[in-house]
Amino acid sequence: MSFLDRITECNSHDLSGFLPLLVGGERVGWVRLDFAERLKPFGDVFEVTEQAVALSPALESFEARSAAVGRVLEELRAHGAVAGWRDEPYPVTTDFTAPPLLRMERAAIPRMGIRAYGIHMNGFVLDGAGIKMWIARRARDKQTYPGMLDNMVAGGQPIGISLRDNLIKECREEAGIPPEIAARAVPVGCISYLAQVPEGLKPDVQFCYDLELPPSFTPEPVDGEIESFHLWPIEQVMEVVAKTTEFKFNCNLVIIDFLVRRGLIQPDEPDYVEIVQGLRR
After folding, report:
1. Does domain 3-11+116-278 have CATH number 3.90.1180.10?
2. Which of 18, 24, 53, 252 would be 6's cystine partner, CB 3.0–4.6 Å?
3. CATH architecture under which domain 15-108 falls
4. Residue 265: exposure state from Cβ atoms within 10 A (0-12, 13-18, ≥19)
5. Confidence of residue 129 (pLDDT cuts 50, 70, 90)
6. C-alpha span between 5 and 144 (Å, rounded)
7. pTM metric for this prediction
8. Could you read off the pLDDT of 199-218 as tens digits, one per residue?
9. Taking Cα atoms as reference points, which of 86, 21, 84 lies closest to residue 56?
C-alpha cells in the first residue's frame, strides 16, 4: 500500500453504469442507471431516455427547478430511495464561480453525481524542526463514515455562504476554534477526484487550508460530529495514510497535498509525478 493507492481509491469509477444529468442542455452530473429508473415516474420534472436524464426544459428558473426537484426528492425520501437527509441545500452548477442552476438537498448530490464542494483544513503545530498534525476521529453515530479518521476541520460547502465564513463556522462548530484563530487559516489550493460510492458518484472538489496552531491550543469536539482529537507526529500521519484506509477517503488527498507542499514527500519518491498529478482530477 502507498500514497498512490489512496489516490487511486479516490478515482475508482465506471461511467458505463451512469447516464449524464442535463440541466438547460449542460451536463451537471451523472445518474446511476437504477436511480434513473426511479426518476421515470416524474416525467414532468425529469426526462429519462437511454442517452441521458434531463431536467424538463419547462423548468426555466432557479426557483422553479429547485422547487420541482425538491418535491421529487421528498417523495423518493419517503420511499427510502434517498437516505441520510440533512436539510442542507447545495448549489447545482457547471463551475464553482458560475451562477447556480438550482439548489438540491445534500443527501441527493451523490445520487445525482453532482459536483459538491467543501473545505478541509490541516491543523498543525511546529515542534522544533518537526511537525505535528491534529487528527480528528469522526463520531461513531455519524451518518457518513462513522468512526473514521478525518482532517482537523472539514465540511461541505452549502449554498449562500462564502468559503471563508464556512471555514470559520466549521472551525467553531467542530473543534471549538475561536474565530480570531480560525481567521489565520491560509488557503493553499484544492484537491479533486471522481469516486464511485455506494450512493452514486462523487466528482468533488475540496478547498484546502492550513492553520498553524500554538502548542498551547487543544481542540474540543463541540457539535457531536467529532468524537476526539489527537496530535500526531507527522511521521505517524504519513504511516497511517500510506499503509491503511483508516482515514475517510478524501482526507487522504488533503494530507498528501500537505506532505507534498511541505517537502515531506520528495521528488525522488517512487510515483512522485503520478502522486502530484493525481491530486487534481
Report:
1. no
2. 252
3. 2-Layer Sandwich (3.30)
4. buried
5. confident
6. 22
7. 0.95
8. 999 999 999 999 999 999 99
9. 21
